[in-house]
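Entry 12.
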Amino acid sequence: MKLWIIGGTSESVRLMKSVDRRAIVVSVAGEEGKDRLPADVDVRVGPMDKDAMVNFIREKNIVAVVDMSHPFAKIVSKEAKAAAEEAGIDYYRFKRPMEEAAGDVIFDDYSSCGEYMKGKTGTFFFTTGSKHCDLFESVKGESRHIYRVIPSSKSIDILHEAGVAMEDMVAMLGPFDLDMNLALFKHAKADFLVTKNSGAGSGFHEKIEAARRLGMTSLVIRTEGEEGLNFSETKAVVERITNGILVSLLHQ
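Predicted 3D structure (tokens):
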């Protein structure tokens, strides 16, 4: 029996460093997520759709799911919740505290941000990852687009496939403090910051403040609000479930 934690975030790493890991299996999308976890963690690497999740639950004898995926990973959360319901187990969602509204122009989605960019020219510095770079490249025009992404071959390959030049890639692993953001934005001579409001502790505030100090325009994509547990509540759930698993195993 195992408790399944959907990881890939700084909070999931923090949690795994502070709890008994013997009755836990963590899933992450890529190898970079695995590398951040303690060496003794049982890790499943690779994306899963709902059917794969249901099979994973059955194969690992999962008793509950704790979803600590990124606030923007809406499809992952939707599929995990459906898989847990189909398997007849409990689903818990961790909710990262969201930063107060900040930025110069706020968007509900990537498409509306792209539409806004059509009428603008300058140097755009993206901290939105590689996933939507094809959309942004389609509205590039005479502008320069610089993408800061995690240093994984997958992210770089996605940028290459979208036609992004090597000199417009910044492959670095965060978190980034104010000074680092200031240095990168200043070096790029950026006019615009394109970022996501990923919540407290994500580095969002440091990016917005750096852009403000440099006179850049911040374009912010927000996420939909959702219900969930805070970190302390999530940790308590994990400890309760894993303690129950370990006790039951002792009596077998």
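Annotation: The first strand starts at residue 2 and ends at 6. Residues 18 and 250 are 22 Å apart (CA to CA).
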